[in-house]
Amino acid sequence: MDNDTIAKLAQACYSSNPAIILGSGASMPHGLPSMGQLQKHLTDNIIPDKGAEAKAWTSVSDALASGDHLEKAMEDQNLPQELIRKIVEETWKCVNKADHEVFLKSIANDVNFPLGKLLKGLLGTSNQRINIITPNYDRVAEYVCNVHELPYSTGFMPGYIQWLADNNSITYQSNGKSVQMIRIWKVHGSLDWFAIAENVFSAPVFDIPTNARPVIVTPGLRKYEETHYEPFRSIMAGADDVLKKATGFICIGFGFRDKHIVPKLHQRCKDMTVPVAVIARTLTDEAKQFLRNNAGRRYIGLEMANTGTRIFTDTTPDGIELDKPDLWSLKGFLTLVM
Fold this sequence. Notes:
By secondary structure, the protein is an alpha/beta fold. The protein has 13 helices and 14 strands.
């Protein structure tokens, strides 16, 4: 496969005003925990009470020990509410610690964000809005926008105590004209979303406020029950609309295990032939299955190989290894399109 063919597939995605999907693999290069590291944190720190909690957590632990990944081990469990609270808080603590480090580096301008280069490039066109959809709780995408001076919204009003706004109601203007912006759809919540009783708000803090609980959706049977309530109902509706109308996709470090996002991707690619790029250090089996069976004919998948990059396309669905190191990273991918 020659450079022109690879570059054309990548360019097709880049020039399509793509929806960007960020998985945990997009944040890991900046020090955020992998699912495996989160799994270890939970198994090391969750102390269930006796009875139903202990029985439920033993079931999860047994599934993990048998080789199930964290999402699979927990999604079929009907976990007690108090155990869910413990999992949510420990998940928040694990991700928040690394997120805070990225925040401090961002202030000191001591971090390189290839995502910022991608976003600035996309906004250098006539695109008025770039949509990012992510199940990540961390605020890496927000820090990227801040460092690169890009206006963005996560759906909450500006301020220190932020309240949920209507979808797409927040816009920016300069001299009476609309300003291009980034819309970040955080479908599983965010580190800075909290609730006291039924009041949901966002606050730019690194500690859980007194009497508040983090508003994040963790793996487990009740993960999908939670999305029937605000703010998830509105956020998911907006993200669904983006996925239904997208004219292309760039998926970065996304494992294709999320049961909210993946079905919409499947449907969009079935309804319309859109260009798709999937890049990751290691493509999951689910990602490879999506490319082979659901992505249509205009796709490119990139993952790290022994001496270069393994590339998946419609003509090479099993992948072919090329001596082109680092194309699987976002920094390397951008060399194909910018």
